[in-house]
Amino acid sequence: MSEHITKDGTAFFIRKPHENDAEKIIQYSKLLFASTDQVLATPEEYTISVEDEKAWISKTLNNSSASTLVATMNEEIIGLLFFVPMTKIKNRHTGEFGVSVHPNHQGRGEGRALIKSLLNWANENDRIEKVFLNVFATNTTAIKLYKDLGFIEEGKLMKAIKQPSCEYTDIVQMYIETIRA
Hints:
The structure is a single chain. The chain is an alpha+beta fold and 181 residues long. It has a single domain, classed as Aminopeptidase, CATH 3.40.630.30. The protein is 28% helix and 34% strand. The protein has helices at residues 22-35, 50-61, 110-124, 140-148, and strands at 2-5, 11-15, 67-73, 76-85, 94-101, 130-136, 152-162, 168-177. The protein has an 8-stranded mixed beta sheet with strand order 1-2-3-4-5-6-8-7, with helices on both faces. A hairpin with a 5-residue loop joins strand 7 and strand 8 (168-177). The longest helix has 15 residues, at 110-124. The radius of gyration is 16 Å and the shape is globular.
């Protein structure tokens, strides 16, 4: 567990989740999916059970090439990051991550701290050489954050997202290479 400070001086913690966090992660995810159209899942699609969430937490904790982190404040989950390594021989040196921050905590540094924690971990992981993500092209705040952290745009998937309003959104693909000591 590591302590961090938001831009307004409030302490929060970043740690690996525990199985007993499963229900809180589900509640956090439901709130997040209902609050924005900048994520892939919709609230009605998110039907994971507490047991499934516990299994997912256990699986990522037992995989040395995967990582899941939660940001907490006052024992509540305010951010979530997961990193999934690719599994084929030719691409297992890479992995994709997703990150989210509670709507009431965005823009305060929690997302930046989660990503930096991931990158520190990836830099120490002998298998991971490239970390990548996909982000909605309309999520300009997130794209700016990723660029500030050194991520490079490497491509776009045109009209990859069709919102319920029938508007299309492109996906921006970004990556960063790990640093070996």
